[in-house]
Specification:
Length: about 130
Amino acid sequence: MDRLSERLRAAHSALSRLEEVLSIDAPSLIERDATIQRFEFTFEALWKAAKEYLFVIEGFEIASPKGVIRSCRELGILNDESATHALVMADDRNLTLHTYNETLANQIYSRIKSYSILIRNWLQQMQDRAN
């Protein structure tokens, strides 16, 4: 349980840092890119926290982000709509390597605010169930 608590704390901390940069009005290109970078590490912290939750609380060992998302949907941690949104978020995370493509970077950036809401709700669901 200690490792799960640590993972959940790390994900909450990453999310706070993401939300901090999302609060900037009219971000510069550097701030946009920083937001995308923070999204990357927030997503990593989130899926690893969910992976640990599934292992410790539910007894499932899942090895991939999309597998974790699907398992969370099956367990009711995510509803169908949230799971679909999370799968798109995982795809966007994989595309962040291509942020040199301005159009793609702007598209991903435009979705990050909605992802932060999804992440906060997902973390809260796991936290509530773990307690």
